[in-house]
């Protein structure tokens, strides 16, 4: 359960960061276009919920990580030296081995997915102004999908 | 492929998977997959299990082809 919570919170953090950056880029892009004379006027709707969402997720993740670290530290059989992220299960030697296996699968996915994404950025000059969300959200999707692959792989091997 | 007699010995010693997990310092899930043969234990865990049952490691863990000899 703790792994589900950590992965969901971490994914939400990346998504919230992407949303906040997207807002910032979009607003600044309007000012840039206006300054260069491409548009005569523009209207903006500024909302604070994205920033609030980012703050809430960050606080929740920090609290959860602290609690998780305390819980892991209290477990007498836990391999504390293997504890780097709260996503890592260090409850015993088998959990550490499966964590390593899941990380390897996620790493392979990230390597190949990044190649595909980088290749897709070739099209940016054509529609970068119209679709500024694309590079932001695709970049955020790298760790999000990597984490999901990690979670699925871990649960698959753990259930065997 | 490493085979083992953990399930048989655990039954003989009247231990639950949880008891053996507690004595050897691992989770119950690890004992479950050890008995299923889907997990190869570390040398340390194998020694710990051997100590619990009071038998030499090679009497508990063996290669699959050894069993057919």
Automatic annotation (TrEMBL), chain A:
Annotated keywords: Membrane, Transmembrane, Transmembrane helix
Membrane spanning residue stretches: 52-72, 102-124, 136-157
Official protein name in the record: DUF3169 family protein
Organism: Psychrobacillus lasiicapitis
Automatic annotation (TrEMBL), chain B:
SUPFAM superfamilies according to UniProt: lambda repressor-like DNA-binding domains
InterPro entries: Cro/C1-type_HTH (IPR001387), Lambda_DNA-bd_dom_sf (IPR010982)
Source superkingdom: Bacteria
Keyword Acyltransferase: no
GO molecular function term, any single one: DNA binding
Transmembrane intervals: none
Limits of the HTH cro/C1-type domain: 6-60
This protein's UniProt keywords: DNA-binding
CDD domains the UniProt entry points to: HTH_XRE
Pfam assignment, any one: HTH_3
Protein's name in the database: Helix-turn-helix transcriptional regulator
Native species: Psychrobacillus lasiicapitis
UniProt lineage: Bacteria, Bacillati, Bacillota, Bacilli, Bacillales
């Amino acid at each position: 359960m703790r792994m589900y919570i950590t992965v969901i919170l971490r994914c939400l953090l990346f998504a919230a960061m992407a949303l906040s950056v997207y807002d910032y880029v979009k607003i600044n892009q309007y000012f840039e276009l206006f300054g260069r004379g491409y548009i005569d006027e523009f209207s903006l709707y500024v909302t604070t919920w994205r920033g609030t969402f980012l703050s809430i997720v960050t606080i929740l993740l920090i609290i959860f990580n602290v609690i998780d670290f305390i819980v892991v530290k209290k477990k007498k059989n836990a391999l504390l030296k293997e504890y780097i992220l709260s996503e890592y299960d260090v409850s015993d030697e088998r959990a550490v081995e499966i964590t390593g296996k899941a990380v390897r699968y996620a790493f392979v996915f990230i390597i190949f997915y990044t190649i595909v994404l980088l290749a897709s950025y070739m099209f940016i000059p054509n529609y970068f102004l119209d679709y500024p969300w694309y590079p932001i959200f695709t970049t955020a999707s790298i760790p999000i999908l990597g984490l999901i692959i990690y979670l699925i792989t871990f649960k698959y091997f753990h259930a065997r | 492929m490493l085979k083992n007699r953990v399930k048989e010995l655990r039954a003989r010693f009247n231990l639950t998977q949880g008891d053996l997990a507690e004595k050897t310092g691992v989770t119950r899930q690890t004992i479950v997959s050890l008995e299923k043969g889907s997990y190869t234990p570390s040398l340390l865990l194998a020694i710990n299990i051997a100590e619990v049952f009071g038998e030499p490691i090679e009497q508990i863990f063996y290669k699959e082809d050894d069993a057919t000899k």
